[in-house]
Every structure is written in C-alpha cells, then in structure tokens.
Design a protein that fits this description.
Length: 307
C-alpha cells in the first residue's frame, strides 16, 4: 500500500505572458498571449504527485481572496488534501511568468504572499501529519526556518526527505544533512556547489559535492538530457522521453519531483522512481501551464509501457 506524501510549499496564481522576447527596462512590447492559472512549486508538486496516483497532502498558507479559491479548487480537482490556514490580512501568492515564444523557456518572479509568513510554529502544528508520511518534500519558496523545521520533524520520524532547492539559495551543510535526496536542476546545482553543470561529468561532480556536504543522494534534472541519479554507490543517467514538441518548460521540474515522490511512496527503487518522474516531466513540457500540464497516472504508465 502506498504511503502518504506531505509537501510543504507555496501556492501562487501564475500570470503567464508569451512573447518573442522580454522587454527592456522602460520598454513596453506586445505579447502574443496571456494565461492565468494555478502554480507555485509546492502546489505544483502536490498536484503532480496526486495526478500520478499519490496520496498527496499540502501544508501552506493562503489569503482569503479569489486566488485562494483557485488554490482550493485546483487541489480538490487533483485529489490533493490541504492542510492550510488562511490569513485575511495578507494575500494569496502570485507569479509573473515570461515564456519565450520560440523556445518555451521561461523566467519567473514569485510573490508568495501569506505563504511567505510560514513559521516553524506553523509546521509544528502539522507535526502529526508529517510524522505519518512515507515521503516529505519541500522547496525554498517559503521561509527557510519553516522548511528546516519540517525536515527536522520528518527526519526524526524516519520519513524519507526530499529537498527541491528552488529557487536557489545558500544552504548550510546541516540542512543538507536532513535530506535523503536533493533534486536541483543544473543552475541550482551550480549555485549550491560552484560547479557549472554543462556536461554529465560536471553533474556527477556537483552531485558528489552535495553528498560530501551531507545529502544522502543527488537527483539532478538536466532538461532535455533527462536526469542524473547519483548516490554513494552509483551514478545513472536516465534520458528524457520523446513525447512531442516542447510547448512550455514551466513546471517540468515540479512534475518530476511530484511524480518521483509518488513512486518512492509506493516503494520503488531510487532509479525506478526517477524514471517514473522523467516520464511525467517529459509529458508536462508538451503542454502549456504549470499545474495544468501535470499528467495522469494512466498517461505516465502508458508512456513507460511504450519504452
């Protein structure tokens, strides 16, 4: 029987603008399209985990506004169980997303709102939920003290812990030592280690550096090149799947982390779980949006069955 996945993170309403390029300071340009939808790394990962078949729970804060209603509706539709407090004196988070029309690459500004006030005390109020999990996941969009306290509670209870170090920020070795796995992308791995990840060998060296600092394993996502699974006993590159043209890369890392967490909660091996996550991410980039792009379990299983 699959275990519970608990995710501490942020919900934001994504405001996505597609254009040929970003405007310069003081310049106004015409965009090609606009879309409003649910996002935030923690929320995206919870949606990805639930749609991939996991028993996903999210711990966060919202305002009491239209974007909060969007969050609750998104989780209800995906099958995510919220452990949420709402603050009428703040606002639900929002994000500006620029999407390059030609490549699908993106640049993002996040304003986390109420979730930016998450404290260790908020996390401690959900200690029983964390302690009963099979897998705990967090990122760095909410305040660091809350993330660290959640990792401490989960680790003390024997829960497998995953840190998705995004957006990139300095981390103490003691924090990495609370993580069974870290899941950075290339730029985040470089920010944490000082090693520019341009080749597979670079990725392995960065992974070694993260493990030397205390992480149990490093699972580095490499975009179109797939993912590197690296621990003290093995280093395995898993290629991305050929699904179709890339439409948008927003949320691809979250699709990976959420589906990866589901596979781990089901008892899969680290490499097998990463392959499952790769399949989810490969499907997600063929669709616009973040939460909206997360594939279902049936879609992931069908892709893996074809490979």
């Amino acid at each position: 029987m699959a275990g519970r996945i608990v995710i501490l993170g942020v919900f934001v309403a994504d405001t996505a603008y597609r254009a040929a390029r970003q405007p310069r300071m003081g310049e106004t340009i015409l965009g090609r399209s606009f879309a409003l939808g649910p996002g935030g790394k923690g929320s995206n990962q919870a949606v990805a985990a639930a749609r991939a078949g996991g028993d996903a729970h999210i711990v966060t804060k919202l305002g009491r506004d239209t974007f909060a209603e969007m969050a609750l509706a998104t989780w209800r539709e995906a099958g995510v169980t919220p452990a949420v407090t709402q603050d009428a004196g703040s606002y639900t988070g929002a994000a500006f997303i620029f999407v390059d029309e030609a490549s699908g690459d993106n640049a993002i500004i996040v304003a986390p709102g109420a979730a930016g006030t998450l404290t260790p005390a908020d996390v401690e109020a959900q200690a029983a939920l964390l302690e009963g999990a099979a897998v705990f996941v967090t990122q760095l969009e909410q305040p660091m003290p809350a993330a660290i306290r959640a990792l401490e509670i989960a680790r003390a209870a024997g829960v497998r812990t995953i840190l998705n170090p995004a957006p990139a920020a300095p981390l103490e070795d003691a924090t990495l030592a609370l993580c069974d796995m870290v899941t950075p992308n290339e730029s985040e791995a470089e920010a944490l280690t000082g090693i520019a990840v341009e080749t597979l060998e670079d990725a392995a060296r960065a992974a070694d550096a993260l493990i030397a600092r205390g992480a149990g394993a490093a699972v580095i996502t490499l975009g179109a090149r797939g993912v590197l699974v690296h621990d003290r006993s093995r280093s395995v590159q898993l290629p991305a799947f050929e699904v179709g043209p890339v439409v948008e890369t927003t949320g691809a890392g979250d699709a990976f982390t959420g589906a990866f967490s589901t596979a781990l909660a089901e008892g899969r091996d680290l490499v097998e779980a990463a392959r499952f996550g790769c399949a989810a991410a490969s499907i997600s980039v063929t669709r616009p949006g973040a939460a909206a792009s997360m594939p279902t379990r049936a879609e992931i299983d069908a892709l893996l069955g074809q490979s």
